[in-house]
Amino acid sequence: MEILLDHFKPVLDFNKYDFEHNSDEQQKLEMFCVLTNGIEKNAIGNSLKDYIISLDIVKNSLEYITMHAPCVKPTLLRTNSDELKDFISKPALKYILRFLTGLAHSHEKTQVAIAAAETIPIIHRLEQVSSDEHVGSLAENLLEALCTNPDVAKQIDAVRDFTRSEKKRLAMAMREKQLGQLGMRTNDKGQVTAKSTILQQIEELGEESGLVCCICREGYKYQPTKVLGIYTFTKRCNVDDFEDKTEEVP
Asked: Residue 30 belongs to a domain with what CATH number?
């Protein structure tokens, strides 16, 4: 195991990899992801995962995530922020998510380490992101691998539930704003009703007397300065061909 991991150690300095790397180093990091995802889920496989953890590879990867992740409040992430775009575009991030997924499958020590580092909210925010590097899908795969641990699954469910409730709250706030612009509101029963001021204005409207517009139904009472027009319907038609002929008298 030592010889195997010594082969990959040079490319596991993630900040250095972000700064500079060549195609051989990229291929080596790709192979490390393939290796970790191919580890068998048994005692022998777990011993290899334990050895990887002892080398602080998992610890360093989690520190990388917490160091570079945008500092945001525990609410919905602005997916168009420059900080987030810079984070998801980092070359090492997608590989970190991939090999953590492989290590987290059916391995309690890796699962607990990720949960203890308080990176679950960050990974959850990443799963809401769409990018060319498929960071969102990779983050979702990692969370699903962590869900095999019941205790960690509760943390993930709590974060996801909070996001759903926050989305609902923001949607309702936007709905109330749009209803307010239309002169309406939502009552305690969830029914959409007109505001009392609108109803009062409707009640104060009087009946028009005299001539009224057939379109808007308003007359000189409410529009005294406007001139009422007359709407007509016209149609082009041909005059009878025999109209110009004089009638013959027998």
From this structure: 1.25.10
173: in domain: no
pTM for the structure as a whole: 0.70
Compute the average pLDDT of residues 55-72.
91
Task: Please name the amino acid found at residue 69.
Answer: A
Q: Encoding tokens for residue 139?
A: 């983050």
**Helices 93-104/43-54 angle, 10° precision:** 140
Nearest one of 57, 50, 45, 51 to 14, comparing CA atoms: 57
Residue 123 lies in a domain: yes
The conformational region for residue 56 under phi > 0 = left, psi -120 to 50 = alpha, else beta, is left
User: How many independent structural domains does the chain possess?
Assistant: 1
Structural domain span for residue 27? 2-168
Give the three-state DSSP class for 73.
coil
pLDDT digits (tens, 9 = 90+) for 107-145: 999 999 999 988 999 999 898 888 888 899 999 999 999
Residue 216 lies in a domain: no
User: Around 139, how many Cα atoms within 13 Å sit in the side-chain half-sphere?
Assistant: 21
Q: Is residue 91 within 8 Å of residue 21, measured between CB atoms? A: yes
Domain assignment present for 110: yes
